[in-house]
Design a protein that fits this description.
244 residues; alpha+beta; 6-stranded antiparallel sheet; 3-stranded antiparallel sheet; globular
Length: 244
């Protein structure tokens, strides 16, 4: 077994070491496709546990040789990098990998369940005034994220949580990123690539037009160019999705 445990949750070590058993017999399933996500209750905490599907043969060999990190391990590390730069993501608790053969394994990523109940998928149900407020706030958030070198490879509406918070700056919309294992971290993201990053979002043309305007302003870029980049990226994503 390979275990990386957040020191803050060392008191959960015994429980985490047997997360495979708890995952099978406890909690509540909230998502299932190739991967499965369940919520588990322990010591007054609600954990969100993701069991990853089996990697390809090439990936399994690369992980075994330590040439490449597993998705679950990346899922543990990426939120820590985000938090270092002041961005929010559910707090990682642990990464666990059980070896089931020479190159076969089962991996789990464990984090605290986010307190935010809404995501960008809800934006079209908001009133026009609130939708505009969220769109402006999100554009500024995305611009700041991209300028800091973070590019979420699955920047879909369901992976961007949001909620209203009260702090020293007053009442504001705050965003939290999930499913960040495929996120790249490096130099600042170009305006064109940043605009293309919005292709997986849900919304109508009016939403994307306003998003382009606000993102362009936040990046001190040309509004018309941003609008073209975003709509071109959306069209390309739809074509590729239609072929899959």
């Amino acid at each position: 077994m390979r275990l990386i445990l957040n020191p803050k949750y060392k008191h959960l070590r015994e429980y985490i070491e047997h997360i495979d058993e708890h995952f099978e017999h406890e909690g509540h399933e909230i998502h299932r496709d190739r991967n499965v996500i369940r919520t588990l209750q322990v010591d007054g905490l609600t954990l969100c546990v993701k069991r990853y599907s089996k990697n390809s043969l090439t990936d399994r060999v690369a992980i075994k040789l330590r040439v490449r990190s597993s998705r679950a391990r990346k899922a543990y590390i990426r939120p820590l990098l985000l938090k270092e730069r002041g961005f929010d993501s559910p707090e990682p608790v642990a990464f666990v990998r059980y070896n089931t053969g020479f190159i076969n394994s089962v991996s789990y990523f464990i984090c605290l369940k986010s307190k935010f109940e809404h995501s960008m998928a809800d934006i079209m149900s908001l009133s026009p005034e609130k939708r505009d407020e969220v769109t402006e706030a999100f554009a500024r958030f995305a611009a700041h994220l991209h300028k800091n070198g973070f590019l979420h490879r699955d920047f879909s509406s369901d992976n961007i949580l949001l909620g209203r918070v009260e702090d020293n700056f007053g009442s504001r919309i705050k965003f939290s990123l999930i499913d960040t294992n495929s996120m790249s971290c490096g130099r600042g993201v170009s305006v064109k690539k940043g605009c293309s990053n919005f292709a997986r979002l849900e919304g109508d043309d009016a939403f994307f037009t306003r998003l382009a305007e606000c993102y362009a302003d936040a990046r001190q870029a040309n509004r018309d160019e941003c609008l073209r980049y975003i709509f071109d990226a959306r069209d390309d994503y739809r074509r590729r999705k239609g072929r899959s």
